[in-house]
């Protein structure tokens, strides 16, 4: 059976020679939360760019809901993308930033107002609709970028280390709220991170990549029931076993998470 997201033997090079992905396979079920875990530079962002149609692979296939996303198509599934930095245009207000994406996704204009309200409120920033990005904290800006990704009703949400620039307390709150949003909305999420703890806390399943150019090193199902608690010793135990399993491949030796 074909998975909701299906990536097979994906190879990507930059400039025709710099190999970024050697061969990656990925299968994500509908409504599944999958974390892609790998060291910096292994090709995680590259894979998300292929899934969002921004980058063409050298070979291999990538489909979302049965549609080949490596080729231009009118019926391409909508993909929400949350980057490490918020990527809000500073000369547009919060609502204007979201409107740009709604327009690009061909969402009927009559729906814009309600969608912006709904998703800003869901992210607890309804009061900032008319604000400028520079008036917001780092966490609030990232909330806007998540609201913007969800407002187009995407088939899948791709998240590229979205909390890695936030302070740890804010990041923990946002991780918790992301899980609640995901449970309420039921989108599939592909969440890229180099933090083992973050992956273990968030995901149903972790796909661990090798050093770049990446292949898949292993997969780990997270058997811990939700709601999860960040400090849960069971998470610590699982984190430690993943650290031990990747230590040799990722090339670090002191058993700590390579932040
Ligand atoms: P990760 O997200 O795991 O940190 P990336 O996908 O960003 O890794 O990068 C994978 C490899 O491809 C790295 O060696 C990086 O330097 C290289 N790379 C990324 N983007 C480009 C680009 N636009 N042009 C050339 N090389 C790139």
SSE order, one letter for each helix or strand: EEEHEEEHHHEHEHEEH
Average of per-residue pLDDT values: 93
Question: How are the strands of the biggest sheet laid out side by side?
Answer: 5-4-1-2-10-9-3-8-7-6
**Ends distance:** 37 Å
Give the uncertain stretches in residue-range form.
254-259
Query: Approximately how much helix is present in the residues?
Result: 25-40%
Shape: globular
How large, in whole angstroms, is the Cα Rg? 18 Å
Structural class computed from helices and strand pairing? alpha/beta
Task: Please provide the count of β strands.
Answer: 10
Any ligands, ions or cofactors bound here, and which? adenosine-5'-diphosphate
Helical region count? 7
Characterize the biggest β-sheet. Answer: 10 strands, mixed
Percent in strands: 15-25%
Structure notes:
This protein has 7 helices and 10 strands. The model is unreliable at 254-259 (pLDDT under 50). It has a 10-stranded mixed β-sheet, sandwiched between helices. The longest helix has 18 residues, at 168-185. It is globular. It has helices spanning 44-51, 94-104, 112-122, 138-150, 168-185, 196-202, 233-250, and strands at residues 5-14, 18-28, 33-37, 59-64, 67-68, 79-82, 156-160, 188-193, 205-209, 214-221. 33% of the residues lie in helices and 24% in strands. It has 259 residues and is α/β, with parallel strands linked by helices. The structure holds adenosine-5'-diphosphate. Adenosine-5'-diphosphate is lined by residues 14, 18, 20, 38, 40-46, 212.
């Amino acid at each position: 059976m074909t998975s909701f997201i299906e990536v097979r033997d994906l190879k990507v090079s930059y400039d025709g020679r710099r190999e970024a992905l050697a061969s990656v396979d990925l299968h994500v079920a509908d409504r599944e939360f999958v974390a892609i875990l790998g060291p910096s530079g292994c090709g995680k962002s590259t894979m998300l760019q292929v899934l969002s149609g921004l980058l063409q692979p050298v070979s291999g296939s990538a489909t979302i809901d049965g549609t080949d996303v490596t080729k231009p198509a009118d019926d391409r599934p909508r993909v929400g993308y949350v980057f490490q930095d918020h990527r809000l245009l500073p000369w547009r207000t919060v609502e204007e930033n979201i409107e740009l994406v709604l327009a690009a996704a061909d969402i009927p204009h009559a729906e814009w107002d309600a969608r912006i309200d709904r998703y800003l409120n869901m992210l607890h920033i309804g009061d900032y609709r008319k604000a400028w990005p520079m008036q917001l904290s780092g966490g609030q800006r990232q909330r806007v970028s998540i609201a913007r990704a969800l407002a187009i009703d995407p088939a899948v949400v791709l998240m590229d280390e979205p909390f890695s620039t936030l302070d740890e307390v804010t990041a923990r709150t946002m991780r918790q709220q992301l899980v609640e949003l995901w449970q309420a909305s039921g989108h599939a999420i592909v969440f890229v991170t180099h933090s083992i703890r973050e992956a273990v806390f968030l995901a149903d399943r972790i796909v661990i990549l090798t050093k770049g150019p990446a292949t898949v090193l292993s997969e780990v199902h997270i058997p811990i029931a939700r709601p999860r608690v960040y400090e849960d010793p069971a998470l610590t135990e699982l984190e430690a076993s993943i650290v031990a399993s990747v230590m040799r491949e990722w090339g670090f030796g002191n058993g700590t998470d390579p932040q």
